[in-house]
Design goal:
Number of strands: 5
Helix content: 55-70%
Number of helices: 9
Strand content: 5-15%
Strand order of the largest sheet: 4-3-5
Structural class: mainly alpha
Largest sheet: 3 strands, antiparallel
């Protein structure tokens, strides 16, 4: 818990230092969902304080994302570090597949550790801003997963975690083995939810053994 709080504090200090705003701008920005502002997305389908994985079609912003990746010129070293965060999240996915809330908490803590190793100073201004906004969401969501009351709540937060991770790859780029962006239409009372996987084989983190192979790959990040 202390480790996550320290990480969040460091993120906020770094973000404020690189993005000074007057109080009027800050008040305005706090009323906007930061990812929607970056991505140009519509309402993400959040309800009662939880995101149920509903989101716009991941292909809708494909051309815009590709152009942004080319413009930002993100260094290979950052891509490697971001990919290591994804690799550290694989045990988290598997803990959800096994429907083990204690393993979920343990795995979330290890993703936090890896997240702290990402060097945001490698990024230039616009890329840095995109990453810092996603980073703050990712760190906060991992904290929520660790403190959630039950497995169902953990899974709802995990859907938001995957959304933030997907945005990071989509707009900052990806190098390495393919990442599979997968979707279960039946998750959360048929609202649907996405997740990132290292394999094209479906292992559903929202149902586990009950419906292990429910879902399909919607996009491959190369």
């Amino acid at each position: 818990m202390k480790k996550i709080q320290i990480l969040l504090m460091a993120i906020l200090i770094s973000f404020w230092a690189c993005n000074p705003k007057n109080s009027e701008e800050q008040t305005r920005d706090e009323k906007q969902e930061p990812h929607d502002e970056i991505m140009g997305e519509k309402d993400m389908g959040e309800h009662d304080g939880h995101d149920h994985g509903q989101m716009v079609n991941p292909h809708n912003d494909g051309t815009h994302a590709e152009k942004m990746v080319a413009q930002l010129n993100v260094p290979e070293k950052f891509h490697q570090q971001l990919n290591e965060v994804f690799e550290s999240s694989i045990p988290l996915k598997e803990a959800f597949v096994k429907s083990d809330p204690e393993k979920v908490k343990e795995a979330a803590g290890k993703v936090v550790d890896q997240l702290g190793k990402v060097d945001s100073k490698l990024l230039e201004t616009q890329a840095h801003e995109i990453w810092m906004q996603n980073l703050m969401s990712i760190a906060h969501l991992l904290d929520q997963i660790k403190n959630a009351g039950d497995l169902e709540e953990q899974r709802q937060i995990y859907a938001m975690f995957n959304r933030a991770m997907y945005r990071s790859f989509k707009f900052l780029g990806h190098e390495g083995d393919p990442i599979y962006y997968q979707y279960c239409p039946m998750a959360f009372d048929n609202k649907g939810a996405y997740w990132l996987s290292e394999t094209k084989v479906i292992r559903n983190p929202y149902f586990g053994d009950r419906m292990l192979t429910c879902g399909s790959t919607k996009e491959v990040l190369n």
